[in-house]
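Issue 218. Parser rejects a valid record. Input:
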Amino acid sequence: MEIFKQIAPLRTYLDRARKSGKSIGLVPTMGALHRGHISLIQTSKSQNAVTVATIYVNPTQFNNPIDLQKYPKTPEKDIEMLQEAGCDLVFIPEDLEMYAEKPRLKFDFGHLDKVMEGKFRPGHFSGVALVVSKLFNIIQPDRAYFGQKDWQQFAVIRQLVGELKFNFELCSIPILREPDGLAMSSRNLRLNQAQRSNAVVFYQALVMAKNALISGAGLETVKKAVLDMVNNRPEIKLEYFELADSRNLTILDTVDKAVLPILCIAGFAGEIRLIDNMFLD
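Output the parser choked on:
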């Protein structure tokens, strides 16, 4: 596996691969890798001749400096996992390589970045869009892979790719879960034993809500049940629970069979913020 820390030699390497007719798959990550990330690598390897993973904790998408400071970093383990998964290249830039000067460019995605995550993390998706635009430009992949757990992020990036006419296929890969249902996340590394045990309530709430809505329960009744269920766990606090149109993230006030609804949830285990979602199909 080749490791690059600078853009110029990475571009040279990928230009040679591209000229020899090799397809390129991109898996952007912020490190602290888990089996969910590796599933993206494996999917890319099955569809491309060259798979590139990036490891970069992007500062412009954090609206909470403490969250940025405490974001888990496990570079040696990450590289070992990528090697074992058969990843071909990994790009691990420093901040100065990605942001030679303070960025001024801002993105506005309208409704897409004003609800749910956008409502509670203002500026987050502008930072995401900026860094993935840089990565798309640097690597110029044939396909790029993102996990379903960050579905709103995927919707934003899908809008970005469409509006800027990036010429590659954007792929969403299903959530991988722990045996008890907790969605795999780099932030799970920060949970203590009690928080880890109680955090599964986010998944349990999604399952309960999905079953209730399919059975015909009213959304407001379900929302109250989710609030009670989540906040009843020690150190767990619900931030939001919404039913949305998965295509455009319009918040729904009732189950609409004409769209593909998605249940989205976010909350805290202690000070650690977790998100999850589940399609209502």
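Fixed in the parser; the record now loads. Residues 2-173 form a domain with the Rossmann fold fold (CATH 3.40.50.620).
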